[in-house]
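for the recovery benchmark. tokens below, seq after
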């Protein structure tokens, strides 16, 4: 999860790990759910979430939560959006999402080593 200010400057990066989950759609849904919870807990009231999981984002924006695989997660996300009018989500293709792509590549290069001491925000800002 990456939090950027309106100018695109990276403010904070938070990693999330889901043991035993290997389905990309489930992971994308869980990461978005965690990002929402995390931002709300930090007091953010206006947030535009971006992601490259078009299937997940389309279902959320259409409030289409009938999905055996991720339905319960989508219901929770849609509920957050209903309660907090300042939250939104939009699709950004991988080719246009340089920040997420850089973080994903860096995280993969560190796996399975611990990333806890790595300052992702500084690293990203140095490359933007």
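predicted aa per position
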């Amino acid at each position: 999860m990456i939090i950027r200010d309106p100018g695109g400057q990276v403010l904070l990066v938070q990693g999330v790990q889901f043991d035993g989950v290997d389905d990309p759609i489930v992971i994308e849904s869980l990461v978005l759910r965690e990002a929402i919870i995390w931002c709300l807990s930090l007091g953010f009231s206006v947030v535009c979430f971006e992601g490259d999981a078009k299937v997940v984002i389309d279902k959320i924006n259409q409030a289409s939560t009938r999905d055996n695989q991720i339905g319960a997660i989508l219901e929770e996300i849609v509920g957050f959006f209903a309660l907090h009018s300042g939250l939104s989500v939009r699709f950004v293709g991988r080719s246009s999402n340089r920040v997420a792509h850089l973080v994903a590549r860096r995280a993969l290069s560190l796996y399975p080593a611990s990333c806890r001491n790595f300052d992702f925000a500084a690293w990203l800002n140095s490359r933007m």
